[in-house]
């Protein structure tokens, strides 16, 4: 997949024409004309074109802040599960710190696996590694579902946790396909699966070590 030289041609103020891909003849990025809300809706239904727009053509301010939000959402979700039967404020605070550390280690492990995959495919490039790292973190946007779990008290529901984890897994696959379009779906899915498994293992190890 070759990048296009332009997304659109501007003829006058407020008048543009979307560029067509030289290879397939389709519009390069139709989401240039879409409102952000419509882009978000297509992200929720895992439209890969929306992921391409988000990663390559959409300027996201404060991506580090987004990563922090995703981390805290996941840590809070873990904290809710781990605080059952504990009422001491200091114990609750310690559980949250452990949850935050576990979430951080899990995210870093997964991003590390994807970056390693990128280095193996494209070689070492700081610009490319930065793009892959930022794009991979975006795949965790499903963590904000913890807000709904708080509102509707779904934190301990198996169905909620299963659907949330499946949603995040699929979003990781779509991100992976966007970042590595030349790899097959099976290969991209395998990379995501390996990353998720190693992430879970690192989180379990962190939790085990912090018990002592």
UniProtKB/TrEMBL annotation:
Which GO BP terms apply? intracellular sterol transport; regulation of plasma membrane sterol distribution; sphingolipid metabolic process; sterol metabolic process
Pfam families named among the record's database cross-references: Arv1
Entries under InterPro entries matching the protein: Arv1
Assigned keywords, A-Z: Endoplasmic reticulum, Lipid metabolism, Lipid transport, Membrane, Transmembrane, Transmembrane helix, Transport
GO cellular component terms attached to this protein's record: cortical endoplasmic reticulum; endoplasmic reticulum membrane; Golgi apparatus
Q: Where located?
A: Endoplasmic reticulum membrane
Q: What is this protein called?
A: Protein ARV
Species of provenance:
Ancylostoma ceylanicum
Coding gene? Acey_s0096.g2873
């Amino acid at each position: 997949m070759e990048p296009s030289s332009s997304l659109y041609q501007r003829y006058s103020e407020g008048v543009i024409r979307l560029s067509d891909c030289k290879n397939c003849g389709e519009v390069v990025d139709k989401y240039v004309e879409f409102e952000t809300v419509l882009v978000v809706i297509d992200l929720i239904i895992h439209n890969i074109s929306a992921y391409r727009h988000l990663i390559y053509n959409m300027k996201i301010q404060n991506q580090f802040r987004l990563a922090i939000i995703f981390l805290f959402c996941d840590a809070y979700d873990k904290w809710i599960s781990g605080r059952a039967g504990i009422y001491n404020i200091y114990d609750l605070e310690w559980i949250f710190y452990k949850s935050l550390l576990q979430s951080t280690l899990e995210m870093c492990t997964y991003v590390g696996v994807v970056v390693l995959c990128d280095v193996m495919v494209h070689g070492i490039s700081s610009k490319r590694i930065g793009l892959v790292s930022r794009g991979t973190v975006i795949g965790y946007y499903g963590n904000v579902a913890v807000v709904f779990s708080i509102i509707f008290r779904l934190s301990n529901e198996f169905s909620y946790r299963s659907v949330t984890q499946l949603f995040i897994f699929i979003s990781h696959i779509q991100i992976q396909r966007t970042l590595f379009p030349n790899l097959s779906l099976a290969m991209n899915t395998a990379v995501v699966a390996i990353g998720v498994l190693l992430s879970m293992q690192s989180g379990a190890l962190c939790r085990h070590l912090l018990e002592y």
